[in-house]
Amino acid sequence: MNNPERFKHLICIASGKGGVGKSTTAVNLALALAANGRKVGLLDADIYGPSIPLMMGVEPGTRPEIRQQKYMVPILAHGIECNSMGFLIDENTAMVWRAPMIISAFNQILNDTAWNERDYLVVDMPPGTGDIQLSLAQSVKVSGAVIVTTPQDVALLDARKGIEMFRKVDVPILGIVENMSTHHCSSCGHEEAIFGTGGGDRLSAEYGLEVLGRLPLDLEIREKTDAGNPVVSSAPSHPAAHAYLKLAQNVECKVSQHVVSAGSGPTIKVSDD
């Protein structure tokens, strides 16, 4: 079983720091891609703090079926194939592992999951720029990375580190997602930029990257994600769901552009000389 042949595109959802909504973005992006008719897999690469089982509404204690005493059958949730360290351990277990063990566990989940053929494998990366990021870049061909940040200056500082890391390992960066961009008061409709403004634009200008989406700071996103019913699947008419659907369209567009760019050959010019 050669997993790289089972998905056309692998997309990393990454951030330089925790707490910026990376996993929420990964989950809703995966669901938005599926809503656009794509076959999608979702891999939780955060070994220390897996959150995909909760966010996808998988019953605690659910374990993947094992085939041939090796391969894990992904859990199906909201029409998406998922795998996570959270399916393999008790939710209260602390992963007190050193780096080699973490890398081994990640590679096993990536390579020994019996994915069906997928258009996209969305990988929810752990925060930071550590061993798993390097291991992924060295293990399989990554179609691109999406960097999630908030407009807050401290988040932008760490997002820069994430961008630099992916560039060093030759992973294309598809663009930036500015999460928690604005908050709309549900009572009066007032719009407020709680975490500041222009952060995504500053990163965009600095690195020549596109802002793929600006996602709102919205109570319904948090409530539905915590309940295992992400907003894209449970409230598709909600403005936040529309924002994720637009993000999915932009991601697909950028992936297509990178494929065309990578596949273009030399130009042959014919002259009379």
UniProtKB/TrEMBL annotation:
<keyword id="KW-0378">Hydrolase</keyword>
<dbReference type="InterPro" id="IPR044304">
    <property type="entry name" value="NUBPL-like"/>
</dbReference>
<keyword id="KW-0547">Nucleotide-binding</keyword>
<comment type="similarity">
    <text>Belongs to the Mrp/NBP35 ATP-binding proteins family.</text>
</comment>
<dbReference type="GO" id="GO:0005524">
    <property type="term" value="F:ATP binding"/>
</dbReference>
<dbReference type="GO" id="GO:0016226">
    <property type="term" value="P:iron-sulfur cluster assembly"/>
</dbReference>
<dbReference type="InterPro" id="IPR019591">
    <property type="entry name" value="Mrp/NBP35_ATP-bd"/>
</dbReference>
<dbReference type="GO" id="GO:0046872">
    <property type="term" value="F:metal ion binding"/>
</dbReference>
<protein>
    <recommendedName>
        <fullName>Iron-sulfur cluster carrier protein</fullName>
    </recommendedName>
</protein>
<feature type="binding site">
    <location>
        <begin position="16"/>
        <end position="23"/>
    </location>
    <ligand>
        <name>ATP</name>
    </ligand>
</feature>
<dbReference type="Pfam" id="PF10609">
    <property type="entry name" value="ParA"/>
</dbReference>
<dbReference type="InterPro" id="IPR027417">
    <property type="entry name" value="P-loop_NTPase"/>
</dbReference>
<keyword id="KW-0411">Iron-sulfur</keyword>
<dbReference type="InterPro" id="IPR033756">
    <property type="entry name" value="YlxH/NBP35"/>
</dbReference>
<keyword id="KW-0067">ATP-binding</keyword>
<dbReference type="GO" id="GO:0016887">
    <property type="term" value="F:ATP hydrolysis activity"/>
</dbReference>
<dbReference type="GO" id="GO:0140663">
    <property type="term" value="F:ATP-dependent FeS chaperone activity"/>
</dbReference>
<comment type="subunit">
    <text>Homodimer.</text>
</comment>
<keyword id="KW-0408">Iron</keyword>
<keyword id="KW-0479">Metal-binding</keyword>
<dbReference type="GO" id="GO:0051539">
    <property type="term" value="F:4 iron, 4 sulfur cluster binding"/>
</dbReference>
<comment type="function">
    <text>Binds and transfers iron-sulfur (Fe-S) clusters to target apoproteins. Can hydrolyze ATP.</text>
</comment>
